[in-house]
Amino acid sequence: MLGPSELAILQSVTYAALFDYPLTLAELHQSLIGLKMDEAAIVRTYRASPALRRAVDCQEGMFFPAGRENLLPERRRREAWSLAFLQRRRLLLAGVCAIPYVRMVALSGSIAHLNMDGAGDLDLFIVTRGLHVWSVTVAVIVLAKLLRHRDVTCANFVVSDSRLALEQHDLFSANQTIHLQPLVGVPVLHELARANPFIASFYPNWRAPESTAFGFEQSPLLARVKSIVERMCRIPAAAPRRPCAAAPTPGT
Questions:
Q1: Tens-place pLDDT, residues 194-209
Q2: What pLDDT sits at residue 224?
Q3: Pairing status of strand 122-128 against strand 102-107
Q4: d(CA 85, CA 89)
Q5: Beta bridge partners of 58
Q6: Are 11 and 33 in contact, with CB atoms under 8 Å apart?
Q7: Averaged pLDDT, 210-232
Q8: What CA–CA distance (Å, rounded) separates 5 from 51?
């Protein structure tokens, strides 16, 4: 019978394998389900457990269910495909990050793992400033259509920074969150983590990243233009409220 440490390793490797994804030691540490262990402890547990080694293999620095060596070349193939997919849509991603009132853009789903298999989608998790969820969503759709990437662009989540708490508190939601790959707005991902403490109950080892993914950096010029547009939009947005604030209440 497996102990708690062995079982946590087995569960984590098995869950990742559902998506045909072998795990590096660092990835296994970050996504270890339900148990806090450092990388050295994971290695010690694995080496000391014949039962675990019969169920989980480790080759080329990656952990996967025994008998599924095919996942190693498959991961390399999918990574190459995913990186090429992202490169072809780099202009779109830069444009989405530059949309006014966007605070964070992160890759989610299979593309966040670089685990796309053929016809996948560009899944995005977007956090907006204040009550601009719908306007940002429409802008993303229009931009994707203009750049002819509408067929693969999927804004799975567009949420306000005032409502970062997720509705579903299950393993799947936690897993999706810990694998978000931020392109802009790294501090917002930290806010998202703090707003959803349930994640730590599933993944106590996970810590939000400190830098953007895949070397993605927003152009300082685009960031500046975005800031200017946001400031300009505050003026017409506030104008209709001034007369209303001074107007007498009906019936008075």
A1: 999 999 999 999 999 9
A2: 77
A3: antiparallel
A4: 7
A5: 63
A6: yes
A7: 81
A8: 12
